[in-house]
Structure of Transposase:
Amino acid sequence: MERTNTFVIEDCPALWELAENCAKLYNEVNFERRQAYIHYKCFEWYPRHLYEKYAPLIGSATAQQIINKNNEAWRSFLALKRLGAEGKLKHITRVSMPRYWKKNGKRELG
């Protein structure tokens, strides 16, 4: 007979809080950029005020990566809009702005 170890795995509230704060940072950066784009204003590629707000909560490296992830989404959107204006997008009929991190009106972590 072989010995089997059984473990009970529980969710760690600290990880859920970290994930929640990461989603909040992404959504705040995205909101500012969406508002700037809609109102024909320039936006910062590195929003220092949001970095300083969330870095103590999620860590500086994580905050930088979340901002970089949002930068990636917006650069892709702007490049697609540029290609669409030039008539080079044959297979895409509509280019949408980057979405918030949520699902069905509610953020889903997990």
Remarks:
- The mean pLDDT is 89.
